[in-house]
Design a protein that fits this description.
359 residues, alpha+beta, seven-stranded antiparallel beta sheet, five-stranded antiparallel beta sheet, 25% helix
Length: 359
């Protein structure tokens, strides 16, 4: 039987006006509190923590030359890395600068550009290889957008970065500004130690390379030792090849799906001191599906590298040579940093190129 509710009974169930006012005030205060927490308090705390972390981890292990205007010159720049008659690849170099559509040669550098169209390489997607020989490790450089290190970074188009850095060939780097826990050591200057579990690719003053696996070094003292006499260190990963030049079996462990799945790719490889390569795999198009992390490792194994490392990929993957983009970048993305090959400052070839551009 349905019971009717009279007007008087409904009046009794209503809250008093003062209670409604209190509830409205409390609700308003709660909403304002949430707004201030997420828009004012937490951002300031995060900014303070970031500043403290950067202040703690930013230091210098050397004053080696950098493409940045404020960089200083160390003893490394005062003498060549390898005596004239002892360099293994001297037969590849030329006394004068020689540039072609697919190569570059000078006294200190030899570069071959190798393009593998769809179906020509060992994977489905087209890819481009810059086969690089440098007499002096200073020819293998890094360059920041804006010409200086900025912890949170900003970006510039590849061709702008190429022009400012004097690059002969270049690829995107490791997108250091998106990973505040990564290590940043560029052109002999250490800007911050790694504080997160990234694999790290380290290039030393003598031209040798070491890839340091995640979680193997836990202390700042350990990184100081690992970075002793280092010229470059990039942190993205993972490392692709083991000590025998064979792809690791656990490449997907502890990685996000977008890192391991099929995408445009960029990586750097090492054969021996003085011999390196950059690889960019096209992707995100009908003609180029991209590559998995295992396929990228297989490309470096096929090239004969003994060390290889995955850099930032996706829309950042791009390679440029002699002032032109030579790969199909899937997004018009501005880059915070690049890896490049250039004549080091003061070398005879660098002086010749300057005179040529001025003329």
């Amino acid at each position: 039987m349905k019971t009717s509710v009279t007007h008087r009974e409904r009046e009794k169930e209503r809250l008093p006006v003062w209670a409604l006012v209190v509830i409205d005030v409390l609700a308003t205060c709660f909403a304002l509190g949430l707004f201030m927490l997420f828009h004012l308090v937490l951002p300031r705390i995060q900014d303070q923590k970031t500043a403290e972390a950067e202040a703690f981890y930013t230091t210098s292990i050397s004053t080696a030359p950098s493409p940045e205007p404020a960089a200083e010159t160390s003893e490394l720049s005062e003498q060549p890395q390898t005596p004239e008659d002892d360099w293994k690849f001297a037969n590849l170099t030329t006394d004068d600068v020689v540039i072609s559509d697919t190569g570059y040669s000078s006294h200190d550098i030899h570069i071959d550009i190798l393009s593998y169209d769809e179906g020509e390489g060992i994977i489905t997607s087209p890819y481009t290889v810059a086969d690089i020989y440098v007499r002096d490790v200073r020819c293998l450089q890094s360059y920041f957008a804006g010409g200086k290190y900025i912890p949170t970074g900003h970006g510039e188009p590849m061709l702008s970065l190429m022009e400012k850095s004097g690059a002969i060939v270049a690829s995107n780097g490791d997108y250091y500004s998106m990973q505040l826990g990564s290590g940043v050591l560029r052109n002999g200057v250490l800007y911050r130690y790694p504080v997160a579990d990234f694999d790290v690719f380290v290039l030393y003053d003598d031209g040798s390379v070491k890839t340091i696996r995640r979680k193997t070094i836990r202390t700042q003292a350990g990184w100081e030792e690992a970075f002793d006499h280092a010229w470059q260190a990039w942190s993205f990963g993972p490392s692709l090849l083991d000590e025998n030049g064979v792809p690791y079996q656990n490449l997907r462990d502890n990685l996000f799906g977008f890192v391991v799945n099929r995408n445009p790719r960029t990586g750097i490889g090492y054969f021996e001191p003085g011999h390196y390569c950059l690889v960019v795999i096209d992707g995100r198009s009908d003609e180029a599906p991209g590559a998995t992390i295992e396929e990228l490792a297989a490309v470096f194994e096929d090239l004969g590298c003994v060390q290889a490392y995955n850099l930032d990929g996706g829309g950042s993957s791009v390679m440029a040579f002699n002032g032109d983009i030579i790969t199909n970048q899937s997004a018009d993305r501005k880059l915070p940093d690049i890896i490049l090959v250039a004549e080091f400052e003061g070398s005879p070839a660098e002086q010749d190129l300057k005179l040529g551009s001025e003329g």
